[in-house]
Design a protein that fits this description.
The chain contains eight helices and nine strands. It has 292 residues and is an alpha/beta fold. The strands form three sheets. A five-stranded parallel sheet has the order 2-5-1-6-9, with helices on both faces. Strands 3-4 form a two-stranded antiparallel ribbon. Strands 7-8 form a two-stranded antiparallel ribbon. A hairpin with a 4-residue loop joins strand 7 and strand 8 (204-205). The protein is globular. It starts with 7 loop residues before the first strand and ends with a helix.
Length: 292
């Protein structure tokens, strides 16, 4: 698609379950105008089509997701700047789009994600910084308009990046900005087990006991080993792979000689992540829109 004809820039936020993806997506939506969120969970296959592992339904694998539907949705968003019509979706796990009106978030936003730890003062300061930055950049044409020429779509999901089909095309062609968040196994398990469960089209899903240890974390480790040093998701991210795929991560979790021997903390404070993401997104948007 020609850059001048596109109607949306798509930002992908990925990382393990309970790493703060949805929290960051909502924060960025709060400070960047003309922004809406699409959730990868809106592309789950029906519960009757999900694979099983160790006698449990496996929601946390590639086979549980319809990447063809996701690709078509992203193509539509880039071209039109709106959600695709609901008829274009085959409804599944966490309820999908239910209105023909644009920018109606799916029911994924009904799921609890825990208290946001970023102070209101930091959110307000970031919003003011973005507003001042937009005044000097022709990004949305008219930031105060209700019908801008360009919109920002944030797609959050536990499995957005991959070196092989079907994820490779999404990673390489359909996502304009790619953020990857990290979390330790201990923190991810504690956060996930603290959740009530998930609103689904079929009703409500709550993780069975041991679900993180049996399903969630092993699947994450297997599908993301290519991103990490020694294939270990509790080590640092590989700088060469991030560069090749243009995936952005906080500097302290990226490997390199300058960090060798330094203590690794995968559980980065959300305020630090948020402020880094705001500054990084402004820089990336500048780079992208220079070609328009």
């Amino acid at each position: 698609m020609a850059e001048k004809s596109r109607k949306a820039i798509i930002v992908g936020i990925s990382g393990p379950s309970s790493s703060g993806k949805t929290t960051l997506a909502r924060l960025l939506r709060d400070v960047f105008p003309h922004t809406f969120i699409l959730h990868e969970d809106d592309f789950y296959r029906p519960e009757t089509e999900l694979p099983s592992k160790d006698g449990l339904l496996d929601w946390d694998c590639a086979e549980a997701l319809n990447f063809d539907d996701m690709s078509r949705a992203l193509e539509h968003i880039r071209a039109e700047g709106t959600f695709p019509p609901p008829a274009a979706h085959k409804l599944s796990r966490r309820s999908r789009l239910t209105s023909a009106q644009p920018f109606v978030d799916s029911k994924e936003d009904q799921n609890t994600i825990g208290k946001c730890t970023v102070p209101d003062s930091s959110i307000s300061a970031a919003r003011a910084r973005v507003t001042a930055w937009l005044a000097g950049h022709n990004l949305f044409s008219s930031p105060s308009s209700s019908a801008p020429d360009l919109r920002l779509c944030i797609l959050d999901g536990f499995l957005l990046f991959g070196p092989d089909p079907p994820l490779r095309r999404i990673t390489d062609e359909l996502l304009d900005v790619k953020f990857f968040l990290t979390v330790s196994r201990q923190k991810a398990t504690a956060r996930r087990e603290a959740r009530d469960g998930y609103v689904t089209l079929e009703g409500f899903w709550a993780d069975p006991p041991g679900y993180v240890d049996k399903i969630v974390w092993p699947n994450y480790a297997e599908s993301h080993a290519w991103l990490f040093e020694d294939g270990d998701v509790e080590k640092r991210l590989r700088a060469d792979v991030l560069k090749e795929k243009d995936i952005l991560a906080l500097p302290d979790v990226i490997g390199g000689n300058e960090r060798r021997g330094k203590e690794l903390n995968l559980d980065v404070d959300m305020q630090v992540t948020f402020e880094w993401a705001v500054d990084t997104l402004m820089r990336k948007l500048e780079e992208i829109t220079k070609t328009r």
